[in-house]
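Friendly challenge for the regulars: who can give me the structure tokens for this chain first? No prize, just bragging rights.
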Amino acid sequence: MWIHYPIFALVLLFLWLWLETARLRITAVKRGELSLKAVNYVLKDEMNDRTRLYGNSYDNQYQQPILFICLLALLHIESIASIGWYMLAFIFVVSRYWHCYEHIRSTNIRKRTVAFALSSLSLFGGWIAWFTLMILG
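First reply, four minutes later:
Bragging rights claimed.
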């Protein structure tokens, strides 16, 4: 079923960010640049910028993407599929990857905001379409 592909793509993004965040934190602790207390309590002020940005981006992936995965699960349960839903899923996933890229680079807040807005519009547009479909049948 088509719904598995966008979910898989988002899980790959989560996994990559998790591994990279863990690697950065472990390396910083081994070098003595970061204390275990800072890792334990997630004291981001004690982390270098790159480690903090990866951690923030990882945390951010558990907000809107989870709502999107729930929407896809509902579409799957109801066996709903169309080119519109495919496009919505494609736009959401690509914009989340773009947002992640801009987030960890932290060089262009305008591009990051556009990526976030695009993912937000596709997410909430999808939910509005879902509710409309359920209400109007």
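The chain has a mean pLDDT of 95. The chain is about 80% helix and 0% strand. Your move, everyone else.
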